[in-house]
Specification:
Elements: H1 15-27, H2 34-50, H3 57-83, H4 88-103
């Protein structure tokens, strides 16, 4: 019986190669979520410099508490979008549910 060894190519999974691949995509025009992330960072810098309580744990807890209903609705709509079953009723129902929750 002859044994043959096949060379298995293992992809490079280092942080440097991942950063290089991402930068190649950005240079090619596929910027993805980069503008949103940069905008969020800019807003955090501006509001953090304007207020001493913006970047505190208490403020983050308050923001999460206030946004909980919107986050739950957004998660539900993501599943609807992923299934491809989106229509006007899903957006309308989520808006009505969000408005009725916030008014309580």
């Amino acid at each position: 019986m002859s044994t043959s060894t096949a060379a298995v190519e293992v992809p490079d999974t280092s942080l440097k190669s991942a950063a290089h691949d991402y930068w190649s995509k950005v240079k090619a025009g596929d910027i993805g979520a980069l503008p949103a992330v940069l905008g969020l960072i800019a807003l955090c810098i501006v509001f953090g410099s304007m207020s001493s309580v913006f970047l505190t744990p208490g403020n983050f807890a308050n923001l999460l508490t206030q946004a909980a209903s919107v986050i739950v609705i957004a998660m539900g709509l993501i599943f609807v979008l992923l299934l491809g079953e989106i229509d006007l009723s899903a957006g309308y129902a989520s808006g009505v549910c969000g408005a009725s929750k916030e008014s309580c």
